[in-house]
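Something for you to look into today, if you have time. Could you write out one complete protein record for me, on any chain you like? Leave the record below and I will have a look.
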Amino acid sequence: MSKRKFVYSIVFMMLAFFAVVSSGCGGSSDGSGGGFSLFTFNIEKIEQNTGMPADSDTKSITYITNNTYNQEITNITQNNTTIATIINIGNTIYDNTKDTDYDEIAASEDAQQEIPEPVPVTATELSGLIYVAETSGTESEDYEAAQDTRTPVSGAHVVISWGTGSEDVAVANGRYTLTLDGKAQFTDRYTSVTVSADAEGFKPFFGSVELEEHQPKEMNISLVRIQPASGNLWARNAQTNEALSGVSVKVLNGWDAADDAVQVTSGTTDAGGKFSYSGIDAGYYTVVMTLDGYTEARFNATFNEGTNNDNIGCLSRRNLAEGQYRVVLTWGVYPTDLDSHLYGKTAAEAVHVYYAHRDDSINNENINLDRDDVTSYGPETITFNVVDNIEAAYEYFIHWYSYADTYDWSRTEARVDVYRSNEQIASYTVPPAPSTNSGSYRYWRVFKIENGRFDTINSYTSTLSNITNNY
């Protein structure tokens, strides 16, 4: 058996990397201890008997440890595949992945990079409007040209929480503002805060938002009156918009509810793909739809007071291959046309699939816009393959195509559901818009996949070049 020696060379260092560890791993649980070391290596496999590369594939790995080589580090992975298992012996790092004998790895303590502890957020502001939710099906045909008629909630109470701190935020005419100077903690320029809002006669709201240092953000909140709600849940085929009958429907209390949450109603869809409900308190719910031959669909839905509630669930047929994605966009009556886009790029080629260019391929793998919709609601669906072992970058984003004076995404009720290999892996609703020039953001950047790694973006931009120039 030939032994393979792994030669490591340093390629780059990442700054501001966050890790939560126990005090037994060299850090303190309260964040007051020293920093950690981040290592990024370029791996090239070398056959010892020839001194030549074992293959042409060069991989990068990143891991963290404390400031000395005194602990075992196992199962270094990339794209869910174990690359190496490394262990320390006498301040020299070895690999024990392929053989029973240790193969020495060249590594230098110069590779160490101190990772700073979290520091206070500065100059980051969160603000928004607390307004009365309106029934979703009542918008007029000329809604895009209408003025903002949202009614502020009188007497609203807002609490914003971060880490171990929280603050009651003053609300005037339905608007709240909190500046986080020196209050919250952030890592790698970001921090997450929880926002709760309530008022007498309304259903309490709980949500979270990720803030970026020096970037004010707006989070508008619609409070639902505690009144009876009724409406319809529609089940559709994600690729064809065909009505699906016999779909099992469960409505669970709360957003992002687990299966053991309180079930408020259940049933099956009729021949037209409709399940009707009534006598439910207006509020925030999780809808779960299942049907043999389709992947389970799970999404958040707001039921407003009154009778005119409609929410669409789009089920993906279980015909996806390993590594294949299906992305489904749905929205409300406003605007009439949102468009799905997928941009992909390798070192040799770039593709852009959307309504005007519905089919293409990258790395000989197909990308298809299965369905386009220009009359509200959707679904719009893109199906594509990703090969994990080929370097490529993809980004999925939404273009607000219809005319509008300003692009108020909070009114669209837009949702993106992501399926991979016959499993739903993500569901996105539109994020809060930045408070600066928020009406100019015509593109919603949802997620990206780089070299097989799936990452959330969930932010806005004003021009297409801001997306394509990133790759």
